[in-house]
Amino acid sequence: MNVQTSIGHGYVVEAPEPASLPARGVEARFPVHRIYCVGRNYAAHAVEMGHDPDKEPPFFFQKAPDTILQPGVAFPYPPKSSNVHYEMEHVIAIGRGGKNIAVEDALDHVYGYGVGLDMTRRDLQGEAKKMGRPWEVGKSFEHSAPMSEIVPVAAIGHPERGAVQLSVNGELKQDGDLDQLIWKTPEVISYLSGLFVLQPGDLIMTGTPAGVGAVSRGDVMTGSVEGIGSLEVAVI
C-alpha cells in the first residue's frame, strides 16, 4: 500500500538532514554514511590505557553520523559525565566503496583526509567496560565527533607521516606522528572492508596518540595533523 503523508518526501515523520562535511576547494559537501573508529592504534596510547602495545588485529567501534560537530562550532559539555576526554585523530574519507579490498588497492578508495576529535565520556565508557557492555554511551553521544573540512587526495596526496597534535588552552597535550600508527591507512581500509561493506561517505577515525585527558567548560582545544589540517573547538 502506498501511504501518502502530510510530512512530505514519503516519510511518516520529519526526516533529519543527512550528515555532511565541507570539502576543500568545492561548494558541494562530503556526505557522511558511517563513522568507524579504530581502537588503540598507537602503541603509547595502548599502554596508557592499560593494554599490551604489541600488534594485534585491529578492533572498531562506531559513532553515529549525526554526532558530527561542524568546523568552528563549540562543543557542549555532555550530561551524565564529569570526565570527558579529548582524543585527536587522523580521519580517512572513503570515496569509493567495496568489500574485501586488497591492501595494495586500498588507497584508490580514498577521497581525502581530515582531522577530528573522538570526544569520550570516559567515566561512562569505563563503567561499560567493567560490566562487559557496549561503549556507545561513552562514545556516540551528541556532538562527540568534532571534524574539520575534508581535504581531497588531489590536493595533498596520501600522508604517511606528519605530527598529530592537540593543545588545551595553549598547552601541548598530545604529540604523535602518523608514522607511529600500528595499522596504517591501507591496512585499516583493507581489514575493515572484510568486516563491513564500505560505502562512499564512510569516515574512518584512525586512533589517537598518547596524552588523552579531561577537559572542562571554558577550555579551548586546538588540534592538527601536519599536512592535512587543523581545528579549534571551545568547550561550553
Short characterization:
With 236 residues, the protein is an alpha+beta fold.
For the termini, the CA-CA separation is 48 Å
Largest sheet: 6 strands, mixed
Helix share of residues?
10-25%
Total number of beta strands: 17
Physical arrangement of strands within the biggest beta sheet = 4-3-14-7-8-11
> Which of globular, elongated, flat, extended, rod-shaped describes the shape?
globular
Strand content: 25-35%
The total count of helices amounts to 5
Structural features, described:
The protein has 236 residues and is α+β, with helices and mostly antiparallel strands. It has 5 helices and 17 strands. Strands 4-3-14-7-8-11 form a 6-stranded mixed beta sheet. A 4-stranded antiparallel beta sheet has the order 13-12-16-17, with no helix packed on it. The longest helix is centred in the middle third of the chain and has 9 residues.
